[in-house]
Amino acid sequence: MSGLKILMLNHEFPPVGGGGAPVTLELCRHLVRKGNHVDVVTMHFKATPRFECLDGIDVYRTPALRKRADICRTHELATYMPGALGKTLRLVKKNRYDIIHCHFMVPGAPLAWLASRSGHIPFLVTCHGTDVPGHNPDRFNLVHRLIAPAWRFLAKKASLVTSPSEFLRASILRACPQANVCVIPNGIALDRFTPASKTNSILLCSRILAFKGFQHVIEAVKDIELGWQVNIIGEGPFLPELKRLAESSKTPICFTGWLDKNDAEFVRLYNESSLFVFPSRAENFPTVLLEAMTARMAIVTSDVGGCREIVGQAALLTRPGDVEGIRGAILRLINNKSERDELADAAYKRVQVFSWDSIVDKYIEAYGRLIR
Q: What is the DSSP string of 323-335?
């Protein structure tokens, strides 16, 4: 199906946001390439243009309060809907969309529901993790308790809720058993990286939050001289604690801060790193693992939910918070190049099933069902 008019709602859109932002951008790009029209309504942030046509996508950035590109606080999230409401309703009236696709139940689904009612248009919501009750108790536990009735109402009103993983689908259904939920994985551009000659380096990349578990990697390597360097990409409230832990490390640990995914340094680190370690204790569908697989890295990750679903047998799995297990996995791969290469090749082979060409067809099929 092509020639659809699609309204895409997400408070985060590149160059702003975490994993959900680039997912939204790539989905929009591939929808446009298949002959569909896509408008995006997102938050304005600092010097970003109020309107731009990006790769054929019309992007509208509406007034909102946000201090940082990499993370959005609860009170800042709350400013998305009032800032975007007028623009969204005007676009709905003008363009007669076939479908409204909202990313994140919070804060976008209330806006999607109102726009749906205004234009009599079916809407679906893609959940990404933090918008699902219980997924990120470090940040949003209290908020989800307060908004639980509204969350369930919106989950039931959505024509469809999509989840990137079976793990998150189960969490959505625990919060709202009546929701219509299906799994559509996130995609990845397979030409995203061009792996060069690999160096003796280990890469970690994410928003720096306690549950991501980066502190356990530092604890695993700080008392031994690996002869390798650890590079950590990301910003977040737990960063000062990581830097404190790394001060006396015998293995050099470099913090790059937040890097845009198109930044040359970001691409270089993915291309040249040999190992990728992602020890999070709770994940829905971490795009960083897809990126690491595309960059042909050997991977060590947690044996939890979305991480396990993504990597299958193409990684070493450890228990969340298991410092000894993480240390053992890292040493095992550092000391065994053939196994390292085998895992890297297996990861690259597995990531092919997540190509955007196949994932976007799943969304178009879902749109067609809802429209019919």
A: HHHHHHHHHHHHT
What gap in Å lies between CA 12 and CA 27, rounded to an integer? Answer: 14
Q: What is the pLDDT of residues 308-357, one digit of tens each?
A: 999 999 999 999 999 999 999 999 999 999 999 999 999 999 999 999 99
pTM comes to 0.82
Q: Which residues, other chains included, contact 27 with Cβ-Cβ below 8 Å and sequence gap of 6+?
A: 8, 187, 356, 359, 360, 363
Q: Phi/psi of residue 340, each to 5°?
A: -60, -45
Tokens 């606080």, located at residue = 73
User: Is the link from the previous residue into 49 a cis peptide, with omega within 30 of 0?
Assistant: no
Domains and CATH numbers, the chain: 5-187+355-371 (3.40.50.2000), 201-353 (3.40.50.2000)
Q: Has residue 135 got a pLDDT over 80? A: no
Spatial CA neighbour of 125 closest among 7, 34, 14: 7
Cβ atoms of 209 and 182 closer than 8 Å: no
